[in-house]
């Protein structure tokens, strides 16, 4: 692989004639970064990483042209969506070219239950069109307004809708993907069925996605509701009961232990100090049985907006998943987070009792196999990396699973083991290791 000093990127830009490019340092800084600064550990490791040139293709043919240039000169290539990730997925560790997919933003076709899109299509913009025929995305992150579909497939995992459809890696949540390789002669491949797993959450290390075929969910009028509780475990039990209530259609079940709601100034009129809360999206058609469930768990509905009313303001989604961390850090930048799967309320209660002053628990219910389980992004008052790792080891020793957001490799932040199929596929499609180098530990080793 070439080093920065041996490549003249002004000349490379000339070879990419016809494709928009930039070498402007300010734009490159912005295009080289994501929300890695949620982690004080990644901040130290990644804050000075920059690309040397950014390219903005609009077609698959232009992507092939960029791929050919990268292979010709052995230039590292990092693919980028909207840059809404949190652990350096799109940060170029070895410089080179940044391929920004934001202008590949066409909906190729849209049918009931399924759609075909370019990777740069923004999620909210897509849903605006899909809802016209009664459908919407199955799963979307808290960055829904700005995130791209390709970026979420390449770097995300869960979000609103996961209480129904699980994670994007669950079978059927991506139907087909078309991608460009970085072989000696770049080519276009299509993957279907279980083969799409080779690109899911791969940070763009296993090919440049140019087209996706995605399944859709029926669109409901989602009423947004806040329920408050005096006791956290009652709130968590309510969240479990709602998630298990198959007759109540919902899209978001998010539980926040006090004092987390105090970090949401926009919601202060609806969540009294010291209260725990549930931030919810429930079908308007199911409000009566939902209200009965709230009464059973002695909760109080303090905020309720119909779908039409919610569409005019800030969605409750903006306070859930990792936007919880975003709001908390805007008040106290010493806070960070850990992605934690508790699996059972019994384990959750045990860990809640052990939390101390440095840990605040925030739950998101999602489907894992045939069950809805409590997971979440607990807030951590950061002191040292050693203490953070101690918390991780302690939680895991008690049966919780931590997807560590303080590392930038695919394996260490996910299931903590090398996926031999992904590694073999990368060896096939990227034999020179040019795609987002340094992010797949299995390939490096």
TrEMBL record:
Where does the FAD-binding PCMH-type domain lie?
Answer: 46-219
Q: Which GO terms describe its biological process?
A: lactate catabolic process
Fetch the InterPro entries from UniProt.
FAD-bd_PCMH, FAD-bd_PCMH-like_sf, FAD-bd_PCMH_sub2, Oxid_FAD_bind_N
| Single GO MF descriptor | FAD binding
Q: What is this protein's record name? A: FAD-binding oxidoreductase
